Amino acid sequence: MIKNRHTSVFCILILVFGLVLFYIGTDGFTAYTAETARVTKLIEEQPVFPEVLMEDSEGRTYSISEFEGKYVFITFIYTGCTTICIKLEENMAQVYDLVPYEYLGEEIVFLSISFDPDRDDPATLDRYKDLFKSDGETWRMARIPEKTQLDSLLNKFGVIVIPDDRGNFAHNSAFYLVDRQGTLVDVMDFTKVTEAANTLRQYVETDKKGE
Amino acid sequence: MNQFLFGLVLLIGLMLPPVARLMESVMIIHMHMQMPMLVIAGFFMAHLFLQRYPQFFNKYNQNGVPGILLFTIIMAYWLLPRTMDEALTIETVEIFKFVSLPFLAGVPLRDSWRRLSKTWKNNVITLFTVVFLGMGWLYIQSNDQLCNNYLVIDQVILGWGFITMAICMVIYLIYIFAVDPSQYE
């Protein structure tokens, strides 16, 4: 079929170009969706949790320094959500149950952050937390009232929230782990509950050994 | 020359930020209207390149295979869910889209299509039919959000868009296979 030498050489060149293009475009054939790429990049970059003011279900306000010296296990939700957030929070509750009791509140704090501050006031969050048997202390639910602060956090942690026309939001979901100094150290698949609980336990145990 | 200008104006029009943003706001328009129109813009602009550098194309694209290969690679690249997302969030990827689709897909397509044998043409169409059916199935059955910038419902609409295009190509292939034009001449 191919008679011309230049043409066949060119064919090979194009194939090589294609391989290189796909290699670069998918981080070495590993990330075919932006979500996979996002998580890989986050874990590499380890952004610091920004100084934003949170208001929790009991009306207390504080920044991330409230949890200094503890791991913070974070999810991003909104209470009006009828689909994925419920699954996310149910799974978070399972992780909560799997983590050794003595770690809760001492080594690890669970934190659900709402990205819908207009509707999720402390009273709403308080009702919502009961659905998942969160105690409001070792597992807190909070909103970030200031829009610009909220956006800076979502941006840093790569949470993309798109409002749809029915007052709902589409968003990517994961478990986020912030270490004792307030740095994001891990992003976990929220569908793998046991794995996440084991990872959490490992983080704490490694620290203990180091002491 | 006129054809080249037409293609260039089309490309510039598509690149205008308000136009680009509008088209990219809907997933199916982004993939099934903006991207093909970019290829079409390159297809028109190819006229000038083919006139000006015929020896280059004769030498390196004698049977049309390298060109169609390049076209296929570029198209496949823009079928990845990730590249669609990144075109919206990373500027260099967006620029690459406006360069690669016209010049690396549109131009070689025009030169190659007249050189390719009938069998090759049908093979290429068959390949794209299979790929589009696959992509359609992927987007329709996937409950996960494959693109962070679009809703799942947009994804399902895009999936059916792929299936529709694939059906059109199947009809064409059946027609080619079943009808012998020489009988009617």
UniProtKB/TrEMBL annotation, chain A:
**Disulfide bridge positions per record:** C81-C85
Look up the domain of life of the source: Bacteria
Q: Which residues bind Cu cation?
A: C81, C85, H171
Query: Which GO terms fall under molecular function for this chain's record?
Result: metal ion binding
Keyword terms, alphabetized: Copper, Disulfide bond, Membrane, Metal-binding, Transmembrane, Transmembrane helix
Mind telling me which residue stretches traverse the membrane in this protein? Answer: 7-25
Enumerate the spans annotated as Thioredoxin domain: 43-209
Which SUPFAM superfamilies does the entry link to? Thioredoxin-like
Q: Zinc among the record's keywords?
A: no
> Into which family does the record put it?
Belongs to the SCO1/2 family.
| Protein name listed in UniProt | SCO family protein
UniProtKB/TrEMBL annotation, chain B:
Query: Record's superkingdom?
Result: Bacteria
Does the keyword section mention Membrane? yes
Could you tell me which species this protein originates from?
Mesobacillus subterraneus
Record's protein name: Uncharacterized protein
The top of its lineage is: Bacteria, Bacillati, Bacillota, Bacilli, Bacillales
What are the UniProt keywords, alphabetically? Membrane, Transmembrane, Transmembrane helix
Transmembrane segments annotated in the record for this chain: 32-50, 62-80, 92-110, 122-140, 160-179
